[in-house]
Amino acid sequence: MSLLSRLFGGKSGGDAPASSGPAEEYKGYAITPAPIQSGGQYRVAARIEKTIDGTLRTHSLTRADTMASQEDAMAISLAKAKQVIDEQGDRIFQI
Length: 95
What we know:
The protein is of the alpha+beta class. The protein has one domain (about 15-90): 2-Layer Sandwich (Double Stranded RNA Binding Domain), CATH 3.30.160. Helix content is about 25%, strand content about 40%. The chain has helices spanning about 5, 70-90, and strands spanning about 15, 25, 30-35, 35-40, 40-50, 55-65. Strands 1, 2, 3, 4, 5 and 6 form a six-stranded antiparallel beta sheet that branches.
């Protein structure tokens, strides 16, 4: 890709979502690990969902941490999501 294409918004071969893993229930939340493939590594990412007052709420969790394997990234994504839930609870859904 040429320098001008990159400067003016041309497509790059950058970050791409890797396949997500199965959702796991944790304290009333559904956590779906969804690592992002980035330059031969996998960035830690997950989707956290919970139904509150009949409305499905979703929070996208993305961290700068990268792992060499997709399996490691999925495991760390689950652990980080659980940590956020423990620390913040339903506040993760506030704007």
